[in-house]
Automatic annotation (TrEMBL):
It comes from the Eukaryota. Residues 268-283 have a biased composition (Low complexity). This is Uncharacterized protein. Residues 259-283 are annotated as: Disordered.
Amino acid sequence: MSLHLQLPNELLFKVLAHVLAYSVHMVVVSPGDIEWHLRVHHTLSARQLQYLRSLGVAIRDPSALGNFSIGSLDSTAPQLVQGYSLYIAIVYLRTQASRSTAEIYHSTSATIFGAVVTLSKVLYSRIVPREVSVMLKFATEDEAELSHVGILVVRQCAMLSGCVDALTDELDPADEAAGLRRDLNRLKAEQMIGNIDAADVTFLALFRRSVPLPCCTAIWLSQLPDVYATLQRVYDVVSQRSLISEDAVTQLRSLVERWAPPPPPALPSATETSTGETGAAAG
């Protein structure tokens, strides 16, 4: 009788598949040392992992985004490698769209959704064993949720701007229809502010996942096209006039404060500059 502990074959298979899935995922998304992950399993060639690593730089390093070409993806690679290549393309497209206009962001979202469907419905079924794609599956689902949250925030901000502009119009007190429209716009504006705040909660929950989620760390909701500028403008308007409820104003103020861009680094004072020059001269 053997004295060595042995796992049942099915459990051993599950453990090894999970380790492999995690390592392949980390090769793509982790900005840190991945030497162990590169060597974790010899069934994937070093060439394929290095290929994924080179593609993954487009989503690990925002400054390298312009160097990525979707046309360079290898359609002859193993299904798992193709799946990760498509995942990288999805993240790349959404990050690029996030840096453009609201119109481009919306149009690109349709392309991204199609790619997510292709990845989840087609490529997953071809990856064998299925367990090695579990990290890719989770990452794709998170990416789909991030895309949904981003689209919601950009769209709600655009609609919120229109509602608040309508609320500022002067109305004839005798015009009952106009009064009803104003009440409806007020309710819509308050609901949109609540929707944007809820989207921020969802985004932060995704951001705090233990495994890196590249698009979360590259683009915050406040950096999406026209988002922060719209919220700031709307807050400046509603905080001076009783256009919406106090609770909604408070909620909006909290969003503006949380999403405010960090201040630029302070320039050294004249005293600090002269002190540094004196020290350098003395050295």
